[in-house]
From TrEMBL:
GO terms for cellular component: membrane. The lineage of its organism: Eukaryota, Metazoa, Chordata, Craniata, Vertebrata. The chain crosses the membrane at residues 40-58, 65-81, 87-106, 127-154. It comes from the Eukaryota. Keywords: Membrane, Metal-binding, Transmembrane, Transmembrane helix, Zinc, Zinc-finger. This is RING-type domain-containing protein. PROSITE patterns: ZF_RING_2. GO terms for molecular function: zinc ion binding. InterPro entries: RNF121/RNF175 (IPR040176), Znf_RING (IPR001841), Znf_RING/FYVE/PHD (IPR013083). It is found in: Membrane. The keyword Zinc applies. It is a multi-pass membrane protein. Residues 212-262 form the RING-type domain.
Amino acid sequence: MAGLQPQGDLLKITHRENWKIQHERLHVKHRGHEAMHAEMVLILVATLVVAQIVLVQWKQRHQRSYNLVTLVQMWVVPLYFTLKLYWWRFLSMWGVFSVVTSYVIFRATRKPLSRRTPRMVYKWFLLIYKLSYAVGVIGYLAIMLTMFGFNVFFRIKAEDSMDVGVVMLFYGLYYGVMGRDFAEICSDYMASTIGYYNMGGMPSRSLTDDICAVCGQRILVDVDEEGIIEDTYQLSCNHIFHEFCIRGWCIVGKKQTCPYCNEKVDMKKMMNNPWERTHVLYGQLLDWLRYLVAWQPIIIGIVHGINFSLGLE
């Protein structure tokens, strides 16, 4: 065994020297091309600025179409890289998520809507939300512990623990985005079908005090009473809902207005304890990631196309 150690060191040295040689060749190849590189950087910056302006204007003027196109890209772009790079583990998880979510969407868009469907939909997407949150946090902790060298205590190689952390963080963030976006679409369809919600105008039905506008079912527990199975929650506009329904509507479905009168919901008041307020920050992080995954590859592709048409390498 002792005789094999120098050979291992020799292989490592050879690999490092190989990397240095390749690095030097890259510098030699691009030496004297500073003007071209500066032009490519300007093209990249200009494309990013223009794309950002276009996307912001699109989102403000036609939010529904923007969200739909972004969601389709979020669903398809990772699939392309998965097939190209043979990431079969991600593909299998993506397939299971897609099949179950497709069934949930099918149930949510049926007319007439089954009385059990709203809770089934929110339970599924709440499960996805909590799992993605937990997996993302574990992945982030794995990355941070590796950076501080704690992997040594578990006798795990730094590259292995870092890979696990990055993969778990990506899984958590990606499925968190997908779950929230699909939940928003289902929330719109179900609430519009029930009739107490209309995103573009007045509701088609009048809401009484004993009906939950999110699921359309009766409210059996008073606001001041503590329910055995579920509590009742009253918004600042005085409309009353099942607590599970309104939390699913606001936190999972990304709606921050009353399902009936569209008055702004105070999300800080809805959070029962400080730990739950991290869900708001997590939701904002997922919104930022949506842009990164859905639009960044397309913007980079446009930049490559411009560079190729101008003869820039």
